[in-house]
Design brief:
The chain has one domain. The chain is built from two helices and eight strands, in the order αβββαβββββ. The chain has an eight-stranded mixed beta sheet, with helices on one face.
Length: about 140
């Protein structure tokens, strides 16, 4: 039992140390607007967040949007806003003009798999943290 507890703490240590944020290197394949302030980002994930071992490069398709939760978006100062989403989109566009390889961040799990798809995910918010565009999904699961 004690060994299992120690193992669990060691596995969660990178997540705790990063404050729920991690990042990975990604090669951008495609980025396009789909309308209504929503975008599709196709990338190859070149490393793993939270210090986990990277076993293989994986193509990911992220559907980006800002979806306000049932509660008021501006109730808490620490929550992402629509303005921050727009700033993150602009930074992402700027980074892609400089290089097709960027650092992409996630908050907690970052995005959730779209049911019935393979390597296709939904992101509900973007924000910039330490110059890195971060995806946040769980923000809306209040």
């Amino acid at each position: 039992m004690r060994r299992n507890l120690i193992l669990a703490v060691l596995m969660l240590a990178p997540l705790i140390a990063s404050g729920g944020r991690g990042s990975f290197d990604a090669k951008i394949i495609d980025f396009r607007e789909t309308g209504n302030d929503e975008y599709v980002l196709r990338m190859i994930q070149l490393s793993q967040p939270y210090g986990y071992e990277h076993k293989r490069d994986t193509e990911l398709v992220l559907h980006l949007r800002f979806q306000c939760p049932r509660y008021e978006c501006d109730d808490a100062e620490s929550l992402p806003t629509l303005e921050e989403y727009h700033q993150a989109i602009e930074l992402l566009k700027n980074q892609m003009t400089v290089s097709d390889i960027i650092t992409f961040g996630i908050v907690d799990r970052g995005y959730a798999q779209i049911e019935g798809t393979k390597n296709e995910y939904q992101s509900n918010a973007l924000e910039v943290y330490d110059g890195i565009v971060c995806s946040n999904y769980d923000f809306f699961d209040l």
